[in-house]
Amino acid sequence: MIAELGLALLWIAAALACLSLIAGALFLRAGPKDLASLVRPASVAQGVLTAVAFALLIALFVRSDMSVELVARNSNSLKPMIFKVAGAWGNHEGSMLLWLTILGLSGALVALFEKRLREDTLIATLTAQAALSLGFFAFLLFSSNPFNRLPVAPPDGQGLNPLLQDIGLAFHPPTLYVGYVGLSVAFSFAVGALVTREIGPAFARAMRPWVLGSWIFLTLGITAGSYWAYYELGWGGWWFWDPVENVSLIPWLAGAALLHSVAVTATRNALRAWTVMLAVIGFSMSMVGTFIVRSGLLTSVHSFAVDPERGTFLLVLMALYIGGALTLFAIRAGTVAEGKKFALVSREGSLVINNLLLTTILALVLLGTLYPIVAEAMGEKISVGPPYYNRVAGPLALILCLVMVAGPLLAWRKDDGRKLWSRLPPAIFAGAAVLFALVLFGGKIGILPLLGMSVAGVVAVASLAPLWNRNLRRTPLPTWGMVLAHFGVAVALAGMAAESAFIKERLVAAAPGETVRVADFAVRFDGVRPVAGPNYTALEGSLTATTPGGASFVLKPESRMFPGLMGTAPTETNEAALLTRPGGQLYAVLGQPVPGTNGAPDRYQLRLWWKPLVWWIWLGGGLIALGAALALIGRAQLLAIWRVRRARKAEERFAP
Where do the Cytochrome c assembly protein domain residues begin and end (predicted)? Predict the structure, then answer.
């Protein structure tokens, strides 16, 4: 009954989305005003029903109901509970229902709490959101039903992909999806404002918290996904430029550009058309990513193996939504005034340059991701790897960081370039000092890591400049948020550059008792022992790492074997062991045994890395997200204060 109830709730929620769409469209075409009163409650009910349906899907996974096809294909009664729950979205159908749930709840929140827009603009926004939901309801109900029953229930399920049986699955996809769907709300705001021609500060202020919240979750999702791949896949890297990694990065770049642009529109009433266009681009990139992951066009450890028919369905949805929004923008573009003018040397000018660089990097990453598809369609197999991205995106990213340094130091509307230079000496000195030290003592370093660490020094010092000569206790939270986020960029950049410049690697076949040196560590291989996990068996290696100071640490990498279930083949995975020190991480992977000869004991392949400052990458990502969260909280406080003051003025106006 649970599966049938979940499917029924999805159909009812789809009907409510259809009601919102029709009632909103008729109201906007000068229909009866009573129609507007249907849109808000229908949007709220749709979100609630979709969330209940998703909760029922999780219940089916928790109960290991193998009569449901999705559970049988992606779960097993032996799995730990956390992976049963996370398995509900560790597959195509479940992840799409999660997407739709977040989309529905977002529309419900807009309907309940948005008070700043005119009624017609709000109804247009909710109508656009209903149109998005309806397309995904059709996709789910007609081609990806998560509640489909099997004619005969198997005795047990096939289990979840072993690579996904990690705590990262519980956090990485949901945070990314919240980020993606937040951009869909920004898209709906943009479409609503275009329909009613209300493109100005009020529209931007309504959109800004959604863009900021979306970008926070995208940052957390990408950071968590990077660390998950780093320790789970056993290859020792923090970013592979994998196609699916790229399609999470692309919306993040678009969101970063939109975040800065919407701030200018909200505070200075400028860049109106640019803000609307970036809102469309941001959600478009989310749709492109969804299509790539689920179409089967590109091979990735992250992608879902999905038949081409589903990819075609998504392609049609993408064409309808993106094409429709771009057509509307083209029709309305002539009526969208750019607002107040500003000089190139101004904070607005720096944000425009910042956005142009972000969108250029976005275009280059998108080109590298899609080019292999186009080449293969023309009969030629081409792979685009890290060298392309590092060479084309790396230099632009460094220039972007330098422009980011200048922005907070400039005045709004117009500033004097000479004053800017007078504010930069501490930052320039910091960057020069780092560069000088690396050239003298760093040894042979590539030009990009060398420049990266130097620019990180500039950004770290300049990011603190907005706090100079201020009363820190009275500094607004949004300012603290900007400072912390920009400082996080410097930390992450330093980690990326230092890891690339100074990484040390050893690949050996060691017998028990042998010692291997990597960087300043002496690593003794003590041997292996069999261990049993909840649903796997493993060989656990034991390594003792000793520092020059005599401190010893034990690392226990594992080579795990997951049994084949219900006709599937057994799967072997590597579980890396990490030793985190202030200066970096020692990363160890246990490989295959090498049989000994002439009675000698077996040797085991060991792969050891010393990765300087690598953990700064994820620390920087966390600081960026925390800074954005402080800005969001600060904006909410300012909004609450503004509402209280407006209410007091209204009381005074009508007081006897």
Answer: 89-296
The whole-number pLDDT of residue 302 equals 47
User: 253 phi and psi, to 5 degrees?
Assistant: -65, -45
DSSP class of residue 411 equals: P
Residues 7-22 have a mean pLDDT of: 96
The half-sphere exposure of 134 on its side-chain side, counting CA atoms within 13 A, is 18
Among residues 324, 329, 348, the alpha carbon closest in space to that of 277 is found at: 329
Radius of gyration of the chain from Cα atoms?
27
Average pLDDT, integer, range 590-612: 85
List alpha helices for 87-200, DSSP H.
Answer: 92-113, 119-143, 168-196
**Tens digit of each residue's pLDDT (9 = 90 or more) over 444-482:** 899 999 999 999 999 999 999 999 888 888 888 999 999
pLDDT computed for residue 487 by the predictor: 97
Helix axes 119-143, 168-196, angle to 10 degrees: 130
Alpha carbons 174 and 221: distance in angstroms, whole number: 8
Buried (b) or exposed (e) across 516-526, using 16+ Cβ within 10 A? Answer: bebbebebbbb
DSSP result, 95-117: HHHHHHHHHHHHHHHHHHH--SS
Count of CA atoms in the C-beta half-sphere (13 A) of 545: 23
Is 68 strand, coil or helix? strand
